[in-house]
Amino acid sequence: MTNDSTFSTNPAKEELLHALRQRLREIIIEKSLKFAPPDQPFILTSGLSSTYYINGKKTTADPEGLYCLAQFIFESVKETEIEAIGGPTLGADPIVGAVAALSQIMEQPIPLFIVRKEAKKHGTQSQIEGADIAGKKVVLVEDVITTGGSVFKAVEAVKSAGAEILDVLAIVDREQGGREAFAQAGLPYHPIFTISELMPDS
Description:
This protein has 202 residues and is an alpha/beta fold. The protein has one domain (4-198): Rossmann fold. Helix content is 36%, strand content 23%. The strands form three sheets. It has a six-stranded mixed β-sheet with strand order 7-6-5-8-9-10, sandwiched between helices. A two-stranded antiparallel sheet has the order 1-4. Helix 5 (149-160) links the parallel strand 8 and strand 9. Helix 1 (11-31) runs antiparallel to helix 3 and helix 3 packs across helix 4 (93-105). The longest helix has 21 residues, at 11-31. It is globular, with a radius of gyration of 16 Å.
């Protein structure tokens, strides 16, 4: 189970992260968690069917939700060796933009990058837009993780660009194999929530 101590051992920081996490949970449940009608399951990007759906973009489109998320992530990574933050488009786009903007306000700037689904066929033909991450230590972010497939594609692109991955962060882990896949690949992985922590009886 994910908890605030995953990210911090400083009591004051833990208190802040706990408050942010509690508010984020409320926003995610209100904005992002939807349940399917009987016998009409949602079909996920992974191809799996589900009785519920987490639309992380509803939380990252909410001003308070995005701010709480950006602050939570910034506080979680600011004392690491992070040199850039990014992730696969589209889920990571608003998150890393908000973290980068907040980091500038806090005078600890963290450049951002976005990983395209595939390399451009024109111009620089790059798959990664934004900060130059060659030789840099980076953190990858995604909104919702099921099997981790979209993140693993980003991992390949980031490693090919010469970056070192410090951590993979997610808003929600659906507990359908993502954590195990990251562990098998030797990648540090920290979801803010597991889906179990968002269900009505949790």
